[in-house]
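Technical note accompanying the year-one report. For the benefit of new consortium partners, we illustrate the data format agreed upon in the data management plan: each record pairs a sequence with a structure-token string. No post-processing was applied to the example shown here.
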Amino acid sequence: MGRVAKNLKKLLPIVSIAAFFLLWQYFSGFYSATLFPSPFQVLAALFELIERGVLAEHITVSILRFLAGYILAVILAVPLGIIFGYFPLFHFAVDPLIQVLRPISPIAWFPLAVLWFGIGNAPAVFIIFLASFFPLLLSTLDSVRQIPPIYFKVATNFGAGKGAVFYKVILPAAFPGIMVGLHIAVGTAWIHLVAGEMLGSQSGLGYLIVDSRNFLRTDWIIAGMLTVGILGLVIYRIMKMFEIFIKRFWGVES
């Protein structure tokens, strides 16, 4: 019975996806293809975009923008979070500024981003950076602050230097919380990438969706939306693989 239940459990995601597409197919019958295309029409549109080479071009641009903004946020936010978490006085000094800037939506920065950087890659990268920076900063900060003080005392008693404390105490102990921030930042960054491309870019998946609307190609719009979702899932899976690799490296997970 245990094996049967386990196999049935594995089928649940497939069943839910199949049910979604069946409902989509059913409700699309009440509308014209221009308003609400069926799954088969969207699939045909997806193959059309692939054959034209349009989809690959826009995906490449979006991925490069995403990586540029996200990696820049990781490079800055994680070290700052560790510093603010380890040195409470620094955190006390900058916390009011963080709490003022953090609630501002990255999209609210877009008019300034266009004024500062013009139209193109830079505004979108800036928006992705902002969407990633604060979740990473705060999750890293909180993770370091929650490390039990006994860890540092034990490391000191064993004669560990500052470098050893950083690599063998702070990073492994704070890593689960940092990883939560990395996951959150991936989601927010990917969402705001598409939004940024809709507002001020001439390429990328967000631009493809908006441009398809101008030609009343609803099938292309939905194909672009599905591509965004699928790529988001792929990025999430890559992040999980990275998390498992790091945990195994530190001996946290077998």
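Partners are asked to follow this layout when depositing records. The two ends are 28 Å apart (CA to CA).
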